[in-house]
Amino acid sequence: MADTKISIKDVRYAAALAKIAVSEDEAVTLQSELDAIIGYVKQLDALETNGITPTYQVTGLSNVMRDDKVIEYGVSQAALLQNAPQSQDNQIKVPKVL
Amino acid sequence: MKTTIATLLADLGSGRTTAVKLVEEALRHLEEVQAAYNVSISTARERALEQARQVDEDRAAGKPLGLLAGVPFMAKDNFLTFGTTTTAAAKILEGFNAPYQSTAIERLEAQGAIMIAKANLDAFAHGSSTENSYYGPTKNPVDAARVPGGSSGGSAAAVALDIVPFALGTDTGGSIRQPASFTGTVGIKPTYGLVSRYGVVAMASSTDTIGVLTNTIDDAAVVINIIAGPDERDSTTLDQRSASYMPADNTLGKLKIGLVKEYMSDDVQPEVRQAILNRAGQLRNLGHTVEEVSIPSVATALAIYYIAVPAEISSNLSRYDGIKYGLSASEAASLDEVYGLSRDQGFMAENKRRILIGTYVLSSGYYDAYYRKAQIARTMLINEFKKTFEQYDMLLGPVSPTTAFKLGENTDDPLKMYLADIMTVAASLSGLPAFSLPSGADSQNLPIGLQIIGKQRDDALLFAVAKQLEEAE
Hints:
The complex is a heterodimer of chains A (98) and B (473).
Chain A: H1 8-17, H2 24-41, H3 77-81, E1 87-88, E2 91-92
Antiparallel strand pairs in A: 1-2
Helix pairs in contact in A: 1-2
Chain B: H1 5-14, H2 19-37, E1 40-43, H3 45-60, E2 72-76, H4 103-110, E3 114-119, H5 153-160, E4 166-171, H6 177-183, E5 186-189, E6 209-214, H7 217-227, E7 256-260, H8 270-285, E8 289-293, H9 301-316, H10 335-346, H11 349-362, H12 368-391, E9 394-398, H13 414-418, H14 425-430, E10 434-441, E11 447-454, H15 459-472
């Protein structure tokens, strides 16, 4: 990994995964910026990390459970739909998928 | 002297003013300074005045009043609120009307506090200067040619300008502490999980923390007292909170305090270093022990942060798809184009950078090398803090290596901008409470912030020490 350089191809690949239609110009700028950032964070390569487990949650909580019952949050369907760019018959409308 | 919650409550109680007058005055003040400082994105005038009238009526009728009845405040525009839009300063959320309110806002409103306006921020809280806002940068009230810090720059400016006695902010890697430091205000990032994040636009869920900016320690403690505590709508909230965060309710013994050596290097502006040493001297005069302590892992914190946080951002921001709410590219002909074009048009450059870094470090073939490696390094950092806190009650250092930088100074170099967070991210990654306390100024009169960092859940202790330091200034 030591010689990893971010290429335009990497930027395009990440952008496709992230569903962002970046332009050609943007991809060029992003390539150098991402390369600098990834270059910086790669300093972690030097750490000796054998046998140490990763941390994803810092306060020790896990599997916080509650009763399996509906809690009324007071949010109406109409209030949610009024923010949708397109809706029809009380549903969010999307372009044809199939 | 800046206005405090206590003075406002006294004036309301004695009849010298009314809630309606306070709300009108705050909105007028905001309007006066808006062109010069760009503090706010929108106001909630009608709803605020309606609430104020209700408070005044209740007071006149002798009804029981909340702890903050009639006190105006502002919220960073990533808190979902009624009365105006919630945009997170992002184009993709332009015109978004929140269908519900965040828990923090609900708890404050239940005590009679009145949200008058939404404060500017870096879009989606991605930034350290409030220059990444779709609504333009906020200017520093101390020097309008400089940034107020970020991402809670609008909240900091609102408090520094004395528009409101408190403003809510969010801190994921320093976004409350650094603007507090740059504007000479008090900035409180509580323990991770102390305050519910329900109804706050998510950035990085493993470090996102709700807090407050104020001019005094007591005001900050009053607000945290109201908003802290478990919430069934946010399963990451801690089950326990302290009985009171008010300094007056907590007696403070003699503490052993560590001055973090890695935060006092030659890279730090000399006047900032001197201000921190002065504060260490004050703490010694108060009878505490202060000695230098080395925490080598903090040097890795920024690298960990800029892997772990973009990874979480890439996941959290996947919800902005041009379908459910927010901007939707009108020219899109297919579902894929709705996603791609809406996200390209709706995100700022910094949002895209972080999403793409996050996507990259999580992608097949790189996950172990970057994401997993960072989370292991995070364990090492947390372990080192734990070991340090076996010997020390609290830690000290600067909030930022410099005082406020100039607008545009770091915008061409994202990595340089990230370095502004170098002293704040370690506490974030470890879930530790960390406060920024105004601590003098440099030769150009730019404010300097002292950072105090405590053990998880030691927020009340930090408030007590902060009060001592406030009195020592």
